[in-house]
């Protein structure tokens, strides 16, 4: 049985799956530590390598057609070439994408369209006639509009505005104080500068809960996040020339996948722009993008094993 290996290399874990190239059936899997090579190249690469080796311990290595990886931040500074060279000792056929591209292949199954990722961060990727397009994804300092971090940051700015305007702390502000275990904005800001972006983004779960309980400030923040993601799609359409008459959009990440308020606002934004959308939902690990990438090349007559 011939198979393809897909790896989704994330900030907390590396997921490796082997798929039958004929049927797409998952035939082996392995999970290891984080695969974000920007954070720690050597340790991240050791996790990636161990995941691949674990697959080869379960399946005959000579039957592997190739390895497709999705790695966050891999487009920067020659990293893709370094990863490829380091992995050539394991297998001669290596394809490397960023994690958003692998998600695109997985959710849209190799078809043209847009993938909206909104989790801790955000990015919108488009694929049209074999060419990639990108809107956003510039990180929490300069972008990530509509993401969990962005929502949390807007909520924190409202709390600071209460203080600047000598307002009594709102219910949302008090909930922020409670979440971060502080008593005022001064201790809040001190604590925030000691936290990671993931820690700050986790505030969004409280905002979502408050919205469900009827808090208008929280609901408005979630609606604004959906609008930001909708605007990014509109920008993508102008950039990529994808047709708004029949557009497939893949949804990836907890904010856009699981928050009904964000999705509703996002959908309404696209409707207002007369965009005819079919939504595609994630059905398996983004690692399955490897299989759909293989089938896409096969269907379009691109030789496998050639970059």
List the helices and strands and how they pair.
Blueprint: E1 3-9, E2 14-20, E3 26-32, H1 41-58, E4 64-71, H2 79-87, E5 94-97, H3 99-108, E6 113-118, E7 122-128, E8 131-136, H4 148-164, H5 171-180, H6 185-192, H7 197-201, H8 204-212, H9 216-240, E9 247-252, H10 254-258, H11 260-272, E10 277-281, H12 289-299
Pfam family, one: BcrAD_BadFG
Organism: Vagococcus martis
Protein name: ATPase BadF/BadG/BcrA/BcrD type domain-containing protein
Describe what you observe in this structure:
- With 307 residues, this protein is of the alpha/beta class.
- The protein has 2 domains: 3-97 and 284-299, Nucleotidyltransferase, domain 5 (2-Layer Sandwich); 111-275, Nucleotidyltransferase, domain 5 (2-Layer Sandwich).
- Helices cover 46% and strands 21% of the residues.
- It has helices at residues 41-58, 79-87, 99-108, 148-164, 171-180, 185-192, 197-201, 204-212, 216-240, 254-258, 260-272, 289-299; strands spanning 3-9, 14-20, 26-32, 64-71, 94-97, 113-118, 122-128, 131-136, 247-252, 277-281.
- The strands form 2 sheets. A 5-stranded mixed β-sheet has the order 3-2-1-4-5, sandwiched between helices. A 5-stranded mixed β-sheet has the order 8-7-6-9-10, sandwiched between helices.
- A hairpin with a 5-residue loop joins strand 2 and strand 3.
- Helix 4 packs across helix 9 and helix 8 packs across helix 9 (216-240).
- The radius of gyration is 21 Å and the shape is globular.
- The mean pLDDT is 93.
């Amino acid at each position: 049985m011939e198979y393809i290996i897909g790896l989704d290399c994330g900030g907390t874990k590396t997921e490796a799956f082997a798929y039958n190239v004929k049927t797409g059936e998952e035939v082996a899997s392995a999970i290891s530590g984080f695969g974000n090579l920007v954070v720690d190249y050597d340790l991240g690469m050791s996790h990636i390598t161990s995941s691949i080796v674990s697959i080869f311990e379960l399946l005959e290595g000579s039957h592997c057609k190739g390895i497709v990886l999705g790695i966050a931040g891999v487009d920067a500074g020659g990293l893709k070439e370094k990863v490829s060279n380091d992995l050539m000792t394991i297998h001669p056929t290596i394809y490397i994408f960023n994690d958003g591209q692998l998600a695109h292949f997985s959710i849209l199954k190799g078809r043209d369209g847009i993938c909206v990722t909104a989790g801790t961060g955000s990015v919108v990727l488009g694929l049209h006639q074999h060419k990639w397009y990108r809107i956003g994804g510039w990180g929490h300092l300069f972008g990530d509009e509509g993401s969990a971090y962005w929502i949390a940051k807007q909520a924190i700015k409202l709390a600071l505005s209460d203080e600047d305007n000598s307002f009594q702390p709102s219910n949302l502000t008090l909930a922020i104080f409670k979440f971060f275990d502080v008593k005022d904005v001064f201790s809040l800001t001190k604590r925030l500068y000691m936290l990671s972006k993931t820690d700050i983004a986790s505030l969004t779960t409280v905002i979502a809960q408050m919205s469900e309980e009827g808090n208008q400030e929280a609901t408005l923040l979630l609606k604004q996040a959906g609008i930001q993601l909708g605007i990014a799609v509109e920008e993508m359409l102008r950039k990529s020339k994808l047709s708004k008459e029949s557009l497939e959009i893949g949804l990836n990440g907890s904010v856009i996948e699981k928050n009904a308020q964000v999705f509703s606002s996002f959908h309404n934004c696209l409707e207002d722009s007369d965009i005819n959308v079919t939504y595609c939902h994630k059905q398996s690990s983004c690692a399955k993008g490897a299989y759909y990438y293989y089938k896409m090349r096969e269907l379009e007559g691109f030789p496998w094993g050639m970059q």
